[in-house]
TrEMBL record:
One of its GO terms (biological process) is N-acetylglucosamine metabolic process. Residues 1-31 are annotated as: Disordered. It comes from Coemansia javaensis. GO terms for cellular component: cytoplasm. It comes from the Eukaryota. Residues 1-29 have a biased composition (Low complexity). This is Uncharacterized protein. The lineage of its organism: Eukaryota, Fungi, Fungi incertae sedis, Zoopagomycota, Kickxellomycotina. Pfam families: DUF3605 (PF12239).
Length: 203
């Protein structure tokens, strides 16, 4: 069993160029079990407006997260994706730990791994969010998975900051967020949301 712990519009937050999303083939016309439930869940969880870079930082810092989320279209695709995953796996966490994050999760079962040891940069894995939050153009949404427990909040541990800077460089701006447990869609796996605005996107 994995030891990964819980800590995170028509236009969506931009993922890096060339990033292949597993749901890309699932357009608005795709079918999935319990479609009505998926649509209702998407309506409940989605937000109506994209968030700007300045407002994103202010909302995360204040802990007021109600305006941060996915647009309806992206949330609906996510709900349908979850329904399909649950036909093959008991939980989303089980799917992630055995497929997209299989190699990373396996490291937590290696001899000598201690989840109580101090965090280091190698405890983290950054992946573009396949179902990004609804933000203005130029903002990338990544997920920072961690082998050890991350606490909810907006202050990145030093090792997490090191992993982020190593990936995006010292000139990129970024916002770190571990959602409160009640907002986490995969609470069994420790992760933070990282929103990135690269230096070339400033303006």
């Amino acid at each position: 069993m994995t030891r990964l712990y819980a800590g995170p519009g028509a236009q969506t937050a931009q993922a890096p160029a060339g990033h292949a999303r597993p749901w890309a083939a699932a357009g608005p016309g795709c079918t999935a079990p319990h479609a009505d439930e998926a649509e209702a869940a998407a309506r409940r969880a989605s937000v109506d407006r994209p968030v700007s870079w300045e407002r994103l930082g202010a909302l995360v810092a204040s802990g007021d997260l109600s305006s941060i989320g996915r647009c309806y279209e992206t949330q609906l695709v996510y709900e349908r994706h979850k329904a399909r995953v649950r036909q093959r796996h008991a939980t989303m966490a089980g799917y992630l730990a055995t497929e997209p994050l299989a190699g990373f999760a396996a490291q937590t079962r290696a001899p000598g791994f201690d989840p109580r040891s101090p965090m280091v940069a190698s405890d983290f894995s950054l992946r573009a969010n396949d179902f990004p939050y609804y933000t203005d153009d130029g903002i990338e949404h990544w997920v920072l998975w961690c082998k050890k427990r991350l606490q909810p909040g907006s202050v990145a541990p030093a090792a997490a900051a090191q992993a982020i800077v190593r990936r995006f460089g010292p000139d990129a701006e970024w916002v770190y967020l571990v959602n409160p447990v009640h907002r986490q869609s995969v609470p069994q796996l420790s992760h933070a949301h990282v929103f990135v605005k690269r230096s070339t996107a400033r303006g």
